[in-house]
Amino acid sequence: MTAEAESERPRRADEVAEAATRAFRLLPAAPRDVGPPAGKGSHSPARRISSDPDTVERDLMKLVLTLVELLRQLMERQALHRVDQGDLTDEQEERLGATLMLLHDRMSDLCAQYGLTMEDLNLDLGPLGTLLPPSD
């Protein structure tokens, strides 16, 4: 790699971080812009994403891991449904269980690598509740 290419890499990373910061710098909605939900009298402004160049990678990983965890939980529920229905052989059940446990362990490892907990992945959707169902 040339010296010019090596100096280009940090500058490009700074540009990406600045662009992400601008993209995520959203202000809360003004109360006059959003009416109260049906059946409710008061309304507080929506919470928005706020990010800075130092945490962009961690925030992006949090979003990606949240989506992966949501899919993992959906797959786990589907697998349990198939087991309850008797659609799988004993060997398939064992393989599926081992795969889901391995995926959960890998998710925990990735969370630890980025300083996150599994609870950090459960986004609060305001009046809708949380994204992920409660842990059993």
UniProtKB/TrEMBL annotation:
Which compartments does it reside in?
A: Gas vesicle
Annotated region described as Disordered, given as residue ranges: 25-55
> What's the domain of life for this entry?
Bacteria
Q: Return one Gene Ontology term, BP aspect.
A: gas vesicle organization
Q: Please report a single Pfam family linked to this protein.
A: GvpK
Record's GO cellular component, any one?
gas vesicle
Keyword Membrane assigned to the entry: answer is no
Query: What keywords would UniProt list here?
Result: Gas vesicle
Is Signal a UniProt keyword of this protein?
no
Q: What is its main location?
A: other
Please state what the protein is called: Gas vesicle protein
Where does this protein come from, organism-wise? Streptomyces albiflavescens
